[in-house]
């Protein structure tokens, strides 16, 4: 899968739609492509815990010094933050959109330069914890913040896993939609 990861710093926001069985693979491909261009990535994860993603990225040869995580699932699942986490901010639960938004804002302040991408993994898993209306408000907030700051982003979602009305709203917030295998 090829995103337009521009070396010129031109910001672009994608909605990447994947088959359910390919979601993890797409995530890794996207992070690898972004990292290879020298960008830092902030991964907001409500789908896979930080330690699982970190292992997947390591196996794929991704430079983990350039990946920061906002993990909204680990603390929710085990009741505490794991020891030894590197470049990770833990959120109490996936429905806490305020803390997620604050974490993104704080991380963006601390990362040097404008060579940053934000990836949400995944839109569908967020719908397990919040309403469609709250999801679209949050995605709109993140997309607007990224556009204002001239930062690129990717919203990763399962193809055919989102109600058509929600999908239409999400499509209106992004510059391009990339479907699995296209």
Automatic annotation (TrEMBL):
<dbReference type="Pfam" id="PF24336">
    <property type="entry name" value="DUF7504"/>
</dbReference>
<dbReference type="InterPro" id="IPR027417">
    <property type="entry name" value="P-loop_NTPase"/>
</dbReference>
<protein>
    <recommendedName>
        <fullName>KaiC-like domain-containing protein</fullName>
    </recommendedName>
</protein>
<dbReference type="InterPro" id="IPR055927">
    <property type="entry name" value="DUF7504"/>
</dbReference>
